[in-house]
Every structure is written in C-alpha cells, then in structure tokens.
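Minutes, project check-in
Item: structure for the 133-residue chain
Input as provided by the requester:
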Amino acid sequence: MNRIYISLVVSIVLSSCAYLDSKFCAKVTPITLAEDYYLVLNKKPEKWSGDGTWYYDLVGKDLNTQRDTLIKVYNYRWHDGFTYYWDKGDTLVKKKDSLIVEIRKKDTIYFMEWQCGNPLINGVSFRDFKHPK
C-alpha cells in the first residue's frame, strides 16, 4: 500500500512539473522571439530585480543607431547558463524572431539557443557543454 501511495505522489509531482514547464515555455518563447539587439557591451551585465522579476542590464553601444543604450533582458533562467561569457567589449546579437543570442568575442563566437527545457551552447546542451576555464 505504501508503495502505491508513494508512486501516486511521485506521479502527481512529476506531472505538475511538466505542466509548469509547458506554461513556462509558452510564456518565455514569445518574449525571447521578440527581443532584438545588436550591442557592444560597455561593461559586464548586472543582474537586478524589480517588481518580482529578475533581469540583466545590458549597457553599451547599439550598432544599428550608434547610440549608448540600456536594454533590460528579462532573465527567465536560461540567461544564467551563459552570462559568465558576457564581458566588456563583447558584441551581443539577438535578432527578432530568432531564438539564438550570439556572443562575439575577439576570437570566438558562442551561439546560445533557447530550447524549452534544454537550452544549447553551440548546439550542445547546457548540461553537457564543457565550459572554458
């Protein structure tokens, strides 16, 4: 009887997680698709919180307008997987209707792709990607 009860509880918890993940994905994907920037960072992005939402301040020069720009990129967890790649002088490219953020460094380009439940770095799962030292 205890095994049946435990199995039932585990099943309910796992199915509710899948439901939350699908709601999360339905919320994040359109936001990610709408983002559009082409920016050279003037400083390393900082993480902030406001109104219960976490976001990153991207401060730099917009290469489309040549103006100093502040962009608030909402952090829906997936940015945390690659923010340590962002440094002053890097170029960040995010095209509207794309799920890929390019991080262009002096000698390397990283492609960060939003995939619900399994974001990718250069086509490799965040879980399996070997981070540079």
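Outcome recorded: The CA atoms of residues 25 and 61 lie 30 Å apart.
No further action items on this chain.
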